[in-house]
Amino acid sequence: MPGIVDAHVHLSENPQDELIPYATLNGLRYNLDELLRMMGDNGIVQGLLLSPPLKGGIPLPNERVLELCRRSEGVLSPVFTVEPLPQEVEHAVELAKRNREVKAFKVRLGYLKVFAYDPVYDPLYAYAESEDLPVMFHTGDTATANGSLEHSHPLTLDRLSNAHPGLKVVICHFGNPWTQDVAELVYKHPKVYADISGLVVGGTKYIEGYMDSLADQLSRAIFYAGGAEKVIFGTDYPVSTHALSLELVRRIRIDDADREAILSRNARRVFKL
To answer: How far apart are CA 41 and CA 31, in angstroms?
Structure first.
C-alpha cells in the first residue's frame, strides 16, 4: 500500500478552538508537530486539513488553513470551508482560484441552519464541478447540543445530487447515526462518497461494544452498496485518535483489497492526490 491518507483532519493552534475539549479528552496536545508525528507513527503519509470551529460559531479562516498546510511541507493539503453568505462563497472560490493546491470545499450542515441545496451555494458548486473538486458536507450528529439535525440529515443530499449529478459529494462522518441512509446515497448516485471520520471518541464506558456496533453498521452499508470503492478514511483529529480510527477500519468485515481502498486508494482518486 502506498501509504494511508487521512481525508479529514482539523487544526488551528488557536486558543479559541472549540475542539480543544476533544483534544484534552484524548490526551492530545493538538498542534502541528504532534499531528505530523502521529501521522508518521501510524503510516499516514497525506492528510486533508479542514477548518475547526472557533468560539462564536465561526470557522478558522481559510487563509490560516493554507498557512498550516504550507508549514507541513506538503503532508497536509487544504480544504476550504464555505459559509452560506454570497460574499463568503465568492471569497472562497476566488481564494481557491489563487491557490490551486486546494483539494476540496466543506459545508457545515447542521451547525448552520441551511440546506445543501440552498441557491447561495450555486456559484460554489459550479466552480467545484468545473474543476472536479469535491464538496464535503458535515452530516449526522453535531458536536453541540444546539445543532440542527434537520439540516444535517444526509438524505437532504439526495436533492442536491439530483440537481448536480456531476458534482463530487463527500458525506462526512458517514451520516452517523443514519449510516444505512448514506449507503443508499452512495449506491444511488455515481459521484457520492462517504468518509468514516470522527465516529469513535474515547473515554466512554462501552467503547468496545460501540466500535463493534459501528463496524457492523459500516460492514452492512458496504455490503448494501456493493463494495467499498466509495468509502474514505478519516480521523477527524482531534475528535478521534489515529489508533481508534484505524482500529475501526480493522474491524469492518471486508477483504484486504477493500481495506486498502478505504485507507488510501479511494481518497487519492476522489481528491486527486
So the answer is: 15
Tell me how many degrees the CA angle 80-86-92 measures, rounded to the nearest 5: 20
Would you state the cell numbers that stand for residue 101, as one nine-digit string? 493546491
Q: Please tell me the predicted confidence (pLDDT) of residue 1.
A: 62
Q: Are 263 and 228 in contact (CB under 8 A)?
A: no
| Reported pTM | 0.97
Assign residue 151 the CATH number of its domain. 3.20.20.140
Q: What residues contact 208, with CB distance under 8 A and at least 6 apart?
A: none
* Per-residue pLDDT reduced to its tens digit, 197-218: 999 987 778 999 999 999 999 9
Domain count, the chain: 1
The range of the structural domain enclosing residue 106 comes to 4-270
**The pLDDT of residue 145:** 83
Residues 6 or more apart from 143 whose CB is under 8 A from it?
18, 19, 22, 53, 239
